[in-house]
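Service request form, structural biology core

Requester: graduate student, group of Dr. S.
Request type: structure prediction, single chain
Budget code: on file
Notes: please return the result as C-alpha cells.

Sequence provided:
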Amino acid sequence: MSDLEESVDRVAAETGFSGVVRVDRGDGADLAKAYGLAHRGHQIAATVDTQFAIASGGKGLTALTVVSLIEAGMLDAATTARSLLGNDLPLIGEEVTVEQLLAHRSGIGDYVDEEAGNEVTDYVLPVPVHELATTEQFLRVLDGYPAKFTPGERFSYCNSGYVVLALMAERASGIPFHDLVQQRVCEPAGMRDTQFLRSDELPGRAALGYLATDGLRTSLLHLPVRGSGDGGVYSTAADIHAMWAAFFAGRIVSTDWVAEMVRPRSDVPAASMRYGLGFWLHESREAVMLEGYDAGVSFRTVHDPKQGYSHTVLSNTSDGAWPITRHLDKLLTP
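Core staff response, request fulfilled:
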C-alpha cells in the first residue's frame, strides 16, 4: 500500500467517508478507490465506477455547453438574456449578458441564495420536486426574485443564472439542455457515465444521497427530480478525469476559449479563490476547480495543468468530501 493510499484510508476511516477518491499524476492514476455504501438499505458497496451526483460541479459542464454554442455562432458572450427569454422572468434586466451569467456577475436574484446562509438540508423549493424535470419547468421557481445589484458590478454566486443559461442554450439551439450537454461536452470528452439521471429512477450504478453519515434518510425530497444548468448531473471519477484531459486539450471548446474560461474575472476572498467562466480558480496558482455541495452530495475536483496532477473526491453525503479533499490539497501541493 502506498503512503498516499494509507493516508487517505486514515482520513476516510476517521470521518466515515462514503464515496470515491481518485488522484492522477502524470500519465496514470496514483489512486482510485471507493469507500462506504452506495445504497445503505441494500448494503451495496460503492465502487470506483459508481455514479455520484456532483451538484454545482455541473456548472462547469453548463459553461462548456454555452461556450461551445458561442463557437458555433448560436450565442455570443454579449447575447442578452432578454433576447431569448421574451416575456419570461421579467425581473431579469435588459442588459444582463451571457458572459455576466457565466461569471456570476449578472446581479439577478437567486432561487437558492447561498449568501443567505441556510442549511443545505433545508427544504427551499417552492414547488414539488417531481415537477422539476425539464429546464422550462424551472421557470416556476426562477420567477419573482428582484435583482441584487447592477449587472457587472460584482461577483455573487448565482444558481438561477446557470438555469437561465441552460434555458437560453435550449432556445438558441432548439435542443433540450440535457441533450446539449451530452452532445457538446460528454461525447467529445468520452464521459460515457455522465448523465442527468432522475433521482426517482436511479440505475443500479448510481449512489443514493444521504442526509447524514448514518441512517437511511435520503435527499430525494430536497432536490429537483432532474437537474438543470445549476447542477444535478451524475458522474464518475474516471469521467471527471476525462473531462479535465479533454478540456485542456481543446477537444470540447478551442484552446483560446479554454484560456478565456480560466482567466480570472473575480476575486472571491470569502472562498479564498477566484472565478473565471464556470470554473473556480486557485487564489494564486494555476489550479482550476469544480465544487458541488447539496443535500446528500459533496464533490470537489482540482486540476493543476502546470504541476501535472489532479484529484477528485465524490461523496453521497453533504460533508463527506471536504476532509479528504483538504487532505489532498496539503499532500499534493508543492
